[in-house]
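Exercise (ungraded).
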Amino acid sequence: MSRKVLLIEDEPNITEAIRFLLTREGWQVETHADGADAVQVIVAAQPDLVILDVMLPGKSGMDILRDLRELKSMQALPILMLTARGQSRDREMAENAGVSRFMTKPFSNTEVLTAVRDLHAQATRL
Amino acid sequence: MATLNVLILVCLGYVVLLFGVAFAADRLAAAGRGRWLRSPLIYTLSLSIYCTAWTFYGAVGNAARSGLEFVTIYLGPTLVMVGWWWGLRKLVRVGRSQRVTSIADLISSRYGKSNTLAICVTILAVVGGTPYIALQLQSITLSFSIFAEADPTGLYREGSSVFWVATGLALFAILFGTRNLDANERHHGVVTAIALEAVVKLVALLAVGIFVVWTIAGGIEQMMDRIDSSPIGQWNIDASRWTTFTFLSAAAFICLPRMFQVMVVENDDESHLRTAAWAFPLYLLLMSLFVVPIAVVGLDLMPAGANPDLFVLTVPLSQGNDWLAMLSFIGGFSSATSMVIVTAMALSTMVSNHVVMPIWLSAQEGSASVSGDVRTIVLMARRVSIAAIMALGYFYYRMSGGGAALASIGLVAFAGISQILPALVGGLFWRGATRTGALVGLSIGFGLWIYTLLLPGMGGGLIPVSVIENGPFGWGFLRPQALFGIEGIDPMVHSVMWSLSLNTIGFCVASLLSFPSPLERLQGAQFVNVFDHSVAPQGWTGSVAQSEDLMIMTQRILGTVPAQEFFQAEAERQNGRPGRLPEPTPGFLQRLERELSGSVGAATAHAMIGQIVGGSSVSVEDLLAVADESAQLLEYSSQLEEKSAELTRTARKLREANTKLTQVSAQKDDFLSQVSHELRTPMTSIRAFSEIMRDADDLSADDQIRYAAIIHDEALRLTRVLDDLLDLSVLESGQVSLNVGDGSLKSVLDRAVSSALAGGDGSLIVRRVRPSERIQLHTDLDRLGQVFINLISNAQKYCDALEPVLTISTHDVGGQVVIDFVDNGSGIPPEAQSMVFEKFARVGSDKAGGAGLGLAICREIMQRLGGDITYLPGQGGAGFRLSLPLAYRQAAQ
């Protein structure tokens, strides 16, 4: 069974880097660069994992996270959040909104891979 | 000739009218309507109770006897009104702020709420006032008898008519003067009736005057001739009598209980004094206008021996003009009744508050709280007092037989009541005045007045003739009319001189020698500094009063509803909500006392609260500390007020500064977070791809090249962001040094266009109107070029037209170069237009990789160069307008 990750990120270069990393790990990587319709895209794609940027055009990652967690089917979905804003307030907000893992850019590739593995393992164990 | 019956009917009709007016005015005032009832006109007219029957009839008599001397009676009040209205204003202010009920109350309140002083003044006022009331009764009787002489029926009984007049006036005063208890609630009914009477007596006197001058004498010229040939025409002014009488009438105008009643107690608005200051003298002038003509014509026409006091009546009668005589009678009647009513009201307030209430209170002593319905008792006391005072006047009239000339009784009363003057004026203006001083002065003045004026004036019986001629026990230097051997001057002048001067000296000396009580000092400071003293120092300290007791007592004095309202307001003031009884704080007790003073007078109110609070009225130590240097205290208090105002201002400024700082801090957080994002984003790509290239050993050569290119691009982007940030920070801090030089706009644009287009994909077409660009500039050409490049690059990045075109047009507008950059894209949405010059403002999704600092930098540069950049709406595409002075000036920085 193939694992599907949905990456919501508006920086093309970062998207490309993560796609490269996760594809080599055996993930099927789908990407989306706009915040405005991100919730619908996620719901429609039914991914095993979501990687979500905070600063997105149209709608912020924080709002997308909140809206997702409102939905019953999306409450257990592992969500890894990435932000380039270096504020601890963001981490608190994200944790309150139900994020699974929160990481600050720039990250090391190993970090991202470990986080993705962990989250996926947790989700499948449940 | 009019029959007595008609006269009595007219008289009764007039009284009924007065009742009606008073009743209607009371109703209007109670309903809160009738603003004119509280107008300065009514106030001025009510002051005219100064002109009693004594002035109405007596002025003519006085003129017939002593020539122009009668003028002094009008001169005194005029001088006070015109020259001393500021003093009256102080009197009114004190009276209102202390809720004073009478002149006795004022004196008592000023000198430490001393009831002894109040009783002194009350006795003085009653003793001086009784003959005065008798005088009014006499004038009514005399005028009746004039008509009665001619009455064929012979039904007229002098005695009974006075009795009924006195009874009627007492009834009027009781009905309208004791309706409400709080003297400060004012008696609109009585005051309005008095104002009406003031008009009636003026009209009557003017009518008689006009009749005399134009009908009898035949015109002004003939009148003047008559006056010249009359004995009145050759008066010789006695300077001492003139001075004394003018002074006396001025003093009486201030001190008479009835004047105090209308001027201070019934005053609704301090500003009314302003009107009265000119209107009342005018009234007096009109009243005195025809006095001399009537006197002269009367002396000519009437048989020798006719009473000149009645010329106002007898002259029209002798000419057969019955209706004019009737009008004149009503005028005299008005003068007499208004005076009697107000005097009775004023005196009854004094008697009930300062004599009856203290006696009743001392009878209550020992009980924890005041029992019984005080309200009823006070009202009863007032009513009985009115009746008693009227009875006193009536009996005095019956006993004295009514023979003496009217004017002399009036002056005697004036001299008596003037003894209050030193204590009153001293109390208002001299903080050193003490209770002892006031008592000593009043006693000396009062005694001397009785001894030198009242007793000798009353003729035999009360004082043996031998005493008058040889002095008591044969001591010649104590002869009543020649004290210490000063002989040969007018008895009135003699008495006034001695009594008032010794009164004043006694007052001053005793004040200087005695030590005032703390409460006296407190009150003294409040009186003297009434204008700059809005917050009263507190008199009650360390009280153990029970609020319930106070409440019960207040209910009994003010009535249930007003008392509850007062307590509720106080509770609200203390707790911020009504419902519970207020704590007996010093401030509360102080206000309660003042409220009660309005009903029962200062001394009684003080004593009543003292009874409940347990006598701990003033802590001497506290008060001495406070009141001893109360001038300093006042200054200190005003300083404190100033400080407090300053603190409030500072606090507000601090709050504003804090709000601003909070905003700035939020902006700074936002900025830092934006900067972080702009720096971390390229760094993320760089790190990710460099790690990939390091770790992945199976990368194709193409991928390796592609990833290295990404790292390179992102590193450049990082550099650009840093450059922009540094540039902006230098520009914003103002530390940038401009490299000002000369060049043409065209060459700057040429360089900018080629430089900007070199970095793009070559799809953008730039249209320029070259001839108009031949403008020489004196400015920083590199910085200007930077702005141009930025705008062209923006068009290149963001213009979404299929064939993007940027039009650059230049105008010279009044010494300014205006350069417009307009593209043919969809432009910037209106809601974002105001934001484009802000840092990190980006419109829509930003795929072009800018940090959003470009336009912010452009704006900073343009402002440095003395120009500006604005968004040009309505151009179809995105439009920016640059404006720039032709020559950069240092001053523009």
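Further reading is listed at the end of the chapter. For now, observe: Chain B has 35 helices and seven strands. The longest strand of chain B covers residues 805-813.
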